[in-house]
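User: Earlier you gave me the apo prediction for this protein. Now I'd like the version with calcium ion bound, so I can compare the two side by side. Same sequence as before, with the ligand SMILES added.
Assistant: Got it. Here's the input I'm using:
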Amino acid sequence: MVIPLSENVVLPKNAIYRQYTSKQGWFTFVENSKNTISSALINEHRNCPNGHFSSYNGGLNAQDNCIRLIIEDSGINDSDFIINSEITDLGVIAVEQPNQAPSISIDIHNASFNEGSKVKLSAQGRDPENDHLVYLWTQLLGPPLHLSDASAKTISFTLPNVKSNQVTELKVTVTDGILSTSTSTYLKVTDVFPIKKVLASFDGGSADWSIIIN
Ligand SMILES: [Ca+2]
Ligand SMILES: [Ca+2]
Ligand SMILES: [Ca+2]
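And here is the structure of the complex with calcium ion:
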């Protein structure tokens, strides 16, 4: 069966042939040894080449205007399901959108916090196809943090007490199930209660005292 496209209509890139049967609903044309799909350009008379001609190339090729379907009688692509020397086909050309990776951002970026602070970080993932997104947080740098739920969109944790200013780096990866994207952010942990040295005097001499407040 040869299907000519309307005049001045050509096959788009990434075209697929979708068809309908009452058994399967909509599905992409199944290709096997008895079912093939191919396409060709119209000839110099602006007609589609005869279906037996070798001008048909396998698949749906961009810019072509003729589609050739070879469908097995009663096969998977025949929507009357019976051997009756007739093929019933109800199909449309669709464009397959290749999956695109999600993008990600973290709401707080490169911020400074005092030691002991409770911090909440949220990741904002967006996916061009609105796929379901799964998050994973990991720590790359700095004093170990206990992350509340490393697979949540928002995590919270308490910064440890430190003896000097520290830098931590947290990475979040978002995946749509096939493609993933990562980003990271640095958090500065400020040592607000440093170890203080107090000098006390005694008779006949002096001694160093260390008072650790943190
Ligand atoms: Ca049939
Ligand atoms: Ca996607
Ligand atoms: Ca401290």
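For your comparison, keep in mind: The first strand starts at residue 2 and ends at 4.
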